[in-house]
Amino acid sequence: MPIEVPHMKWWGWGVEGSSFEISGKPGLFPYLKRELGVTDEQVTTPPVPLADVRMPERKLNGPFEAALEKVLRADQIRNDRHERLIHAFGKSYRDLWRVRRGEVERAPDLIIYPESEQDVVAVMAAALEHSAVIIPFGGGSNIAGCLEPRDKSGRYIVSLDMGRMDRVLSVDKDSLIARIQPGGWGMRMENQLREHDVTLGHFPDSFLYSTLGGWIATRSAGMQSDVYGKIEDMVVALRMVTPAGTIITRTVPKCSNGIDVKQLCIGSEGILGVITEATMRVHPLPESRKIYGYLFPDFESGAAALKECTRLNIWPVIARLNDPKKTALSFAFKGTKTPFKALLTQVVKWWIHHVKGIDFTKCCMMIVAFEGDSATVERTRLLADGVYCKHGAAGLGTEPGRGFEKAKFDFPHLRDFVMDRNIMADVSETATTWANLLPFYRDTKRSIEQAITDTGSLPWVGCHISHNYHTGASLYFTFGCRQCPGREMEQYLYVKKAAEDAFMRNGGTLSHHHAVGTEHLPWVEADISPAGVRAVRALKDGIDPKNIMNPGKIIPSDQPLADWGLSGDSSKLFSAGK
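Above: the chain's sequence. Below: its structure in token form.
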């Protein structure tokens, strides 16, 4: 019996029937109205009905389809309109803005559901022989444009949905490794691992709807990366089917065998091949897990505490510091309180302000989690608490932690809610060194705020630090504003460009964990150097000389900014107040 592969809804985040629930968060929309100048609470920009979505006609490739019919079952091959729509986009702001308006300029012509590596090899061979483009598809959660067809030669497009390859194949508890297929959503994979009392420990915001293959292909980072590492730190070995053959790396802890082919596959975003299996480092399920909230006087003191903990080798599994704007949003995100809890909150606020001397307009919330054996958890917590208090933090106990755990996968739903109300919202994340972090933060925040102001809207720009290292940390910026009627996409690109330009100007990277895709293509050369681009292009040409694997990603064109959506002097697109 064929495996039924779940998908997210075509117009937004989550499965059909799921949505952002505002009723239990009475302070959220009043906060957004106040910050963004929103006056109309009514839904004004819902997605168009499915029947009104405009899609290109499906192209035909008889020889390719005939070749597939010899090796695949009929239920593994789909070409209906709904399947084509689901596989046409990821979930970037640009993706959602277009599909909600019913504008689908490109869509795959065929969707294939392989069930084994042999199926992938057969599809690859047929694509090479009959000039078809292959785009690997995991959960469809990517927000960098990795999934949109971008072939300029008009070839037949295949979306290779890996959702039926969703099993944990084996667990070696002695070596603490697991062989895992790439296609199951995060929770399905974790549930299988937990049957063996182990966990991968990788929990990105997209966890409920993203896949191991997608995480590896985009260099994902989970919420607990401070201890468990980013996904590239977890991959022990992998198998990837390419046009040149199947790359297989050995299951060994480390090696010295020349250029690391495994790392060339990680982060390749489907432009080299299809990941069919990965051997991953896993961990015993933690005996204890505790999560707390702290309130720092300002962003600077919180960042200093994070850096000091890295120097002292004090590593919570999560240490997530919100700046004042993100802190205010977190407070607005809270649910309704009982009378007793409301009174208790007022008492705590009085103590924080009058005893600890913390200004609520400048304060910054940090969520901190510890897990492991009970003794290690308590020891690490006490050490971290000492550092935080040294830097002026007020401990808030476990209540903020419980709220974070309950809602940690809900934030992507918020974008659908605000897009229904003519509000643009998106994120840009990067990484930099500790010495550079605060100047970087200030300049980038100013740049995004100014760009939004230029478009005539009130700016909302927040930031949090969510991944910490010995040498530096990530900075994750969230921004939003009222849309400019009739110029919504120009406005978005103008603001997004300001963010990425600031990253390059300040010495950061174009993305810490969201990949290149198409959204970050104009900044690749500045990030990795012209010689670096030549190296990637040579690798692509060597493995995929016919360019059948996800063309138009990672390697920029000769006019990347124009292809991205802006041309000429973008600084003249908007002038303040107009």
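The two ends are 59 Å apart (CA to CA).
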